[in-house]
Amino acid sequence: MPHSHHRLGRLKHFYNLLTRLKSGYGLFVFSWFLSMLSMWLIFNLYPLLMQQTYGIGAFASSLYYAAGAFIGIFAYAPSGALGRRVGNGFVVMLAYALVIVSVAGMTVLAFTNNAQSVWLAPLFFLLTPIAWSPAIVAGTAYVAELADFEEGSAIGIFNATTAIGSVLAALGAGGIADSLGFSSVLVLSGVLGIAACVPLAKVMISRKKDAVETTGEGGKRVF
User: Fold this and answer.
1) Pick the residue with more confidence: 183 or 13?
2) Is the dihedral of CA 30, 166, 122, 188 positive or negative?
């Protein structure tokens, strides 16, 4: 009997987890997972990517990365304030858009192979580390808003998703670069970044619709 109760408890836990994955919370976590794959494909290969694709050395690449991360420091507090004004989902979407623009610009430069435009590649890259600040600030706040269970567990799953995305990207990035080339890594990153917007947009639209049906108004922070 104790074993039966234990099995039933595990099945119930698994069922609850599946139910959450179909909720707004689950959709956002899936969106976040795709975005982490997109970002970390670039982060994990960054020095090699810049060297092999644009001929930019490791030292210069590191300086650009440091510059982007430094600028991003000053975006943490404004990101929280902006999230309170326009909605955390909107701020996350803005961060996604910055990454998409970053990767799209780098991809175009990689395929055109124009020596005179190579200096633009690290400038496009800067947008990705800058985007990390609004993404993580608003993403953490948004997941707490969407969770329909204990907040600590919800944020824990969210953080685990970040870690899993970064590990899987690390495992796959090198193999993709070796077999298909570094430009293919950029293309895949862009596709994943665009795909991440779809479930997030669905969550935002659903929340807006629910707010209108419930209150008759959109509200300022419903996104």
Assistant:
1) 183
2) negative
Print the SS3 string covering the chain.
Answer: CHHHHHHHHHHHHHHHHHHHHCCHHHHHHHHHHHHHHHHHHHHHHHHHHHHHHHCCCHHHHHHHHHHHHHHHHCCHHHHHHHHHHHCHHHHHHHHHHHHHHHHHHHHHHHHHCCHHHCCHHHHHHHHHHHHHHHHHHHHHHHHHHHCCCCHHHHHHHHHHHHHHHHHHHHHHHHHHHHHHCHHHHHHHHHHHHHHHHHHHHHHHHHHHHHHHHHHCCCCCCCC
**What tokens does 41 get?**
């494909």
CA-to-CA distance for 223 and 129, rounded, in angstroms?
A: 24
What pTM was computed for the model?
A: 0.85
CA distance 2 to 5: 5
Tokens of 201: 């947009």
pLDDT one-digit tens code per residue, 30-63: 999 999 999 999 999 998 999 998 988 889 989 9
Torsion, CA 112, CA 117, CA 121, CA 123, rounded to 10: -150
**What confidence score (pLDDT) does residue 148 get?**
83
pLDDT in tens, 135-181: 999 999 999 999 888 888 888 889 999 999 999 999 999 899 999 99
Residue type at position 81 = A
